[in-house]
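Q: Please design a sequence for this.
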């Protein structure tokens, strides 16, 4: 079993996956929405775009911009069933169980939290 840290290290080694970062617009959107609302959005996107055995437009269903969760899905190789099969060995043609969906959402949220923490302003000591 892979830990979250090991999974992030593996994704960080991929030139394609590691290029996905939340920019100012998405960072602001993530902060404005808050963790609970982001989690709700992530769960809905996973249910719609990944959970079905044969998602509509598979391979093209997740935009590359416009929402922090979309960027997380690409950064985590959880944007389509093809990427999930290649990176996470999730078989194609099988609906994701509620537990699998929850795990995907948890990983997406960890990616977003990691992005938020990297971009957080550093406290500067006062002179």
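A: Design:
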């Amino acid at each position: 079993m892979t830990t979250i840290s090991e999974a992030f290290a593996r994704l960080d080694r991929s030139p394609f996956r590691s290029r996905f970062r939340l920019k100012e617009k998405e960072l602001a959107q993530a902060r404005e929405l808050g963790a609970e609302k982001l989690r709700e959005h992530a769960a809905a996107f996973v249910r719609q775009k990944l959970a079905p055995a044969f998602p509509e437009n598979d391979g093209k269903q997740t935009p590359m911009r416009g929402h922090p969760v979309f960027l997380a899905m690409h950064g985590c190789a959880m944007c389509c069933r093809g990427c999930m099969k290649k990176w996470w060995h999730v078989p194609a043609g099988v609906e994701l169980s509620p537990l699998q969906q929850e795990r995907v959402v948890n990983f997406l949220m960890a990616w977003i939290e990691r992005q938020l923490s990297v971009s957080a302003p550093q406290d500067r000591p006062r002179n």
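Q: Thanks. Anything notable?
A: The mean pLDDT is 92. The CA atoms of residues 47 and 101 lie 7 Å apart.
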